[in-house]
Please model this.
Amino acid sequence: MKRVLVVDDEDTMRESIVQVLRMSEYIVDEAANGLEALQRLASFIPDLIISDVSMPKLDGFGLLKELRKSERTSDIPFIFLTGQADHSSQREGMLLGADDYITKPFNQDDLIKAVELRLNKYEMMLNKIQKRLDEFLKSMNLALPHEFRTPLTGILGFAEILEQEQGLSPEETVHIGSQIHKSARRLHKLVERILLLAELDSDLASPERLNTLRSSSSAVGFAIGQTIETLGLDTQRMDDIHVFLVEARIGVLETHLLRTIEEIVSNALKFSSKGSEVKVSTSVDGSFVTITVQDCGRGMSEAQVKSIGAFVQFDRSHYEQQGPGIGLAIVTRICDLYGGSLNIDNSSPPGTKVSVSFPIAK
Model:
């Protein structure tokens, strides 16, 4: 049975809501204001909270702010039930993280439907998170040991040579140092990407962080130029990359835009042969800017596209490749952060066309 906390300073209204919920077989506790509700939460953690806005001691907005500060209560679905039907009041509640806004007087059936909807949505979200976590752990167990051990083995092995071997020539010493540096860079990049994925998930769960990030602005042309210069030189494929730009500014933090372009361009270079074209282009459609990267590689199947996620690699048993398969998961999270989208098109082989769209900066 689901547990609901009802918070309202009007005794008649509160008792009416409590009765309706108990008739629908919910376990219900009640409080007359936000301060009393916080006290109730010490011993009663509900699956959902229904609260009035205007109350003495601590109003509904203040209660919601306090709930979102605590890890213990930050995820509890929250419905405002109030006589304040103006747009500014509703907007303030939603910005604080409210899940719904029902005005008084209310229909009992509508109230129960709203409660059921929010509880079902929350349960679906938890199931989705659990499924993603299970897939993450399964894929991590397959990919991460190899990705950590390979560079660590290189570092330890070459370091042991430096420690034990006498009389190494300057050329041999430089070569060993170069290999240690290469392995360390690979390990550092892996750790940075894992930390970034965790940071993006944290940002997605924070309404305040979302609002801050979505007020950012970046120049698409600068980000593409900077990324392509670095990747082209690193892979010695500068001549393979052809760029067709329409300059625009988008509402994305520059570091996140650089990461997005790096991931999709580096994938195009990784999964296509040297000498084949990788085309990078931009276009503006209405209020969105689309960045498209087209390669001439082996492509991806529909099943592979649908299974994009952290630590997922495709056809590793048939093709040698580095990396934990985290790149497109990072791109997906960044798109979610800024109200963008990721599209992968395999309809015109050979190769794959990857497009990301972001809102134009305000």
User: Anything to note?
Assistant: Residues 309-324 have pLDDT under 50 and may be disordered. The longest helix spans residues 108-164. The two ends are 46 Å apart (CA to CA).
